[in-house]
Automatic annotation (TrEMBL):
Protein name as it appears in the record: Ribonuclease HII
Enzyme class: hydrolase
Organism: Belliella calami
Domain RNase H type-2: residue ranges: 10-199
UniProt-annotated binding residues for a divalent metal cation: D16, E17, D108
InterPro entries (alphabetical): RNase_HII, RNase_HII/HIII, RNase_HII/HIII_dom, RNaseH-like_sf, RNaseH_sf
Subcellular location: Cytoplasm
Main location: cytoplasm
Source organism superkingdom: Bacteria
Length: 199
């Protein structure tokens, strides 16, 4: 069971993002404030859960959270300000969209940038330690996976419905055959360079 809070008697929002390592599509972040006494044995780092478990937990989280929000930073923003800053931007948008203002933020990862005055703690691998960060990772991942599934109907041939835009063999084969789509991140390296070996 994950930890319910970093400090008791304090309204904490867990924040996480998904899609940082993808070659296309927006980066998506979520922020979740859970009741201090809330616990669910399935809530964990979204990467450790099956697709069906993640999807079944979305409603569970939304129905039980004090507040939740999902936000994104676009492909254009990623290309303009880089993926790390775009991740922070998406997280800040999710935090700003919460209907209840938290007293403290639990940020997954080792770095964060914000103009908000809300204090925060960066927690490495926080989505495997704190329930609110895990809940945020689940909301963000299910939202983004569905988005990439929808995009795969507009731009078929890249297997986004199964790889969500990550650099898998099927995705790279699609790029080789058909080139880039308007939702590919132009600032990313899409194909590994060919290495010539001189014997």
């Amino acid at each position: 069971m994950l930890l319910p809070y970093l400090e008791s008697d304090r309204l904490e929002a867990g924040c996480d993002e998904v899609g940082r390592g993808c070659l296309c599509g927006p980066v998506v972040a979520a922020a979740v404030i859970l009741p201090e006494d809330y616990a669910h044995e399935l809530i964990n780092d979204s990467k450790k859960l099956s697709k069906s478990n993640r999807e079944s937990l979305v409603l569970e989280i939304k129905n039980n959270a004090i507040a939740w929000a999902v936000a994104e930073a676009s492909v254009e923003e990623i290309d303009q300000i880089n993926i790390l800053n775009a991740s922070f931007l998406a997280m800040n948008r999710a935090i700003d969209s919460l209907t209840v203002k938290p007293a403290h933020l639990l940020i997954d990862g080792n770095r964060f940038k914000t103009k908000s005055e809300i204090p925060y703690s960066c927690i490495i691998k926080g989505d495997g330690k704190y329930a609110s960060i895990a809940a945020a990772s689940i909301l963000a991942k299910v939202y983004r996976d569905q988005l990439m599934c929808d995009f795969s109907e507009t731009y078929p041939g890249y297997a986004w419905e199964s790889n969500a835009g990550y650099p898998t063999k099927a995705h790279r084969d699609g790029i080789r055959k058909m080139g880039l789509t308007p939702i590919h991140r132009k600032s990313f390296r899409h194909l590994p360079e060919q290495i010539k070996l001189d014997f």
